[in-house]
Amino acid sequence: MPPALVSVEVVVGILLILVLLLIAGTYLRRRVIARGLPLTLCGLRQPGTGQWRMGLLRLGDGALEWYPLGGFSLRPRQRWPRQVLLLDAPVPLPAADTPPLLPDASRVSAAAHASSFELALQTPAYTALRSWQEAAPPGYYTMNVA
Fold it and tell me: Three-state SS for 89?
């Protein structure tokens, strides 16, 4: 067998192993982030920026958490407590402004504390988010917000 063929087989084998490790790592990261809680794909846009950043939105017990889609971190990049989160009604996004992985997404303007931001969500994800926000336990909004 020619040595060049063996070298190509080794390179292809290593690349295949790396791709499988990447897929397994992405799957495991998603499972660890979810921890049995609702998780959905969403876009996040901060004021003054025109670009959507794709990520995973987790509806936690007491806060809405946003994780970047790529990367290795298991900590949320953004976290908004349920008590101070304000959501506006969804507005359909024009095709030119739609995030790449979210066809037919709607823009939801939101605010928490003194910061405002926008989320790009599909209709079922927005419905879940609104239900999560409105389903707080009795007396939940009477607690002090730190």
Answer: coil
